[in-house]
Amino acid sequence: DIQMTQSPTSLSAPVGDRVTITCRASQRISTFLNWYQQKPGKAPKLLIYGASSLQGGVPSRFSGSGSGTDFTLTISSLQPEDFATYFCQQSYQTPYTFGQGTKLEIK
Amino acid sequence: EVQLVESGGGLVQPGGSLRLSCAVSGLTFNNYWMAWVRQAPGKGLEWVGNIMQDGSETYYVGSVKGRFTISRDNAKNSVYLQMNSLRAEDTAVYYCAARGDCYSPGACFFDPWGQGTLVTVSS
Description:
A: mainly beta; 4-stranded antiparallel beta sheet; B: 4-stranded antiparallel beta sheet; 11 strands
């Protein structure tokens, strides 16, 4: 199985900051990498697919990059509604696997 | 408006069975693979399995193989998760989600998702 490792597991930052979350795959996955945002008690929401494509309706302050084994999710200027948990997910092969999550909190 | 609505969760004893349903509206159901993803309380996300558009292929995570079965009824725009021989570690919120074909990275993601249904396995 492909292991997905996110860092950091938690992050505290003020509104307006630029934040980067990284995700590393245990083997090469091309750009079969997706990012989701989850708020407490809610279903995950797709933000980025194919490593760098922005899902419709998602603000442009979110961006993704990477290929192979190393990927990043960047929020260019944190807004109050961005405080949530973020998960990466590989869709290269089954079993599809997720990172352990990065909890983003207000500083 | 696209909606995925799960139902059927609840409390079940270890070794018991439960059948979850997911009713889909607002999208062309038989164009999509359907998936189940679960989340144990306070934990991360775990893909449970997928079913192909016509139901001819299914895939599962190792921990549920032989115990869980995914099926679908395209006439009813619904997907199901039959869970047998349930264990305490199956306790989770179960989400259904749509998935495109994975011939390219550009379509291989889970979206949209239902709101989830809680399954608790306990005596």
